[in-house]
Amino acid sequence: MATQDQKRKAATQTGLYLVVIIAIAIVANMLSFKAYSRIDTTRNERYTLSKGSGRLLQSLKAPIQLDAYVPKAGLAQLDAFVRDLTDLLKEYERDGKGKFKFTLIEPNTDELRDQAKEAGLQEQPFGEIDQTSSGDQATISNGYLGLVFKYGSEKAVIPVLPFQNGGDGLEFWITNKIREIRDKADDIKHRIGVVTGKDELKLSDTNLVPKQGQGQGGPTLKGILEQAFPFYKIEDLDLKDGANAVDKELAGIIITQPQKDYSEKELRRIDEFLMLGGKSLVVYASAVNLKASDATMSATLNTHNIDKLLDGYGIHMNKDAVFDHGAQFRVQVMTQGGAPAWIRHPGIAHVVNDPRMDEKNKLLDTSFAGFFRTDEVVFPFPSSLDIKRDKQPADVKIEVVARSTPASSVDKSETIDMKLREQWRPKPPQDQRILSAYVDGKLKSAFAGSPNEEIKPAERAPQSSRVLVISSSLFLTNPFAYSGNGPDLGGQFAMFGAVGGDPKLLMFAQPYAQKFLTSTILSFKNTLDWMSGDSDLVAASAKLLSEANLTYTSVSKPKFKADDDEAEMKKKDEEYRAARKDLQTHIQWFLILGMPAAFGAFGVFRWQTRQSRRNQLKA
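User: That's the sequence. What structure does it adopt?
Assistant: Structure tokens below.
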């Protein structure tokens, strides 16, 4: 046994240790009194202000004032949201370096409530269910939760903040509102021209969702942009067969899927515009052409001469349709027996960020502005692209940013049936296909060496211009609503809205919209940022995206062969599902039993180690 002296010595040492620990804690608190730091380990840096937001603040000519109206209703969810909002505003204030100031206002008096209402905020209910032993009780109150921005002589508001989602996307909306009020006050314009006159897919088309009822047109991509991102001015650009030069004040040109051919003069006018330098061209089109409100989904192949322009920049669009049998895209339907079943459509490429792929073969480049931190993007009805490096000087960058899986084939038939069906038979050969690429630098004219007496652009742009090709004919719309919605009668019958429509396609259109349209719209908005030179703001856009679905990269997807019959394809699909289910089961049991067992084993090890030390002391 330990002697009395040993006990006193141990007690003295313990006391000294406690004094030292307390002293360290006091000194650390004194040193960190004015210091603040935290580590954000989330994938999208959810709790850290993006660098683009900080640079935006520092670009302001004067400080911006933000008044945050926040209630104190005593609700746990609301109080947590207010804490997160306050922390985020402190980040803005710190990175703004004097250009951002904020005030928290609790509208708890009639005067402050009137002030909030006059500022443009909307009163909203705050409710929370309290589960107690006496039963569920609902606590409901009304108040204001919104933001008022003041910059120079301009004012802007976010009238309602949805606190139920825990602050997801909060930086996105705040940063874009700051940009909106800055551009308005400082007269900064971002004009983008969208080519018209080609029976093209229009941004004003009402095919994002199924058309509900008569007289209801539904949302449009152009309407969403005008409401959420008013700092972009989307304008119609009629090339008029190349009669006039493109307005040099435009920041860029967008080409959407055409149904009519481009003339050589029109293509030369676009090239002339890019040769001014500092300009952009984005092509959302492929060789796969489908007609609106055509439930047969019969496609024809025609590039409408766009390939003649893109070839000169080093990106060749092939006259084919890509079918990706290794992609994950699928839609759920109910069978006659009431059981859910999945129907795949390889003609709609579901491109995911697969970490198993190396740099040369990766499916999605999430570092590119248009797909920044986006884990999945859908390419409806794509055509394959080829890179022609020799078409541009060595200092011009040509990069691939989206590819299909290696289990992809192409169809070059004049007419292709794209209608949904249960089985799609792969056709050889199968290989990985390029779906999107961009060119950036001092571009050489696409028509260099082929002069025209009327249109004489520079042989090379004096400063960097950009060309992006997203080889998908219906990228900017909902392919099932586009084909399944009935036609608008127009004229005196416009009040009746769309007539008819295909019920089966419209049944698929709604889940497509819910799952994929958010990422499509954000990709388009990020591409506009890239066109206008504000690509550093795309990090804020990533905060709006939800976490990606769980993927099972250790489970190989089924590899279908051209000679597989329906029974063999079904067998491979079932084997893949079984392997994925086994993995889920193993993970489940590891979490239930494995983790507790590991902690238990560690505890036994610690106990045995301490017991061994005690026995050594006794000896």
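The longest helix spans residues 566-618.
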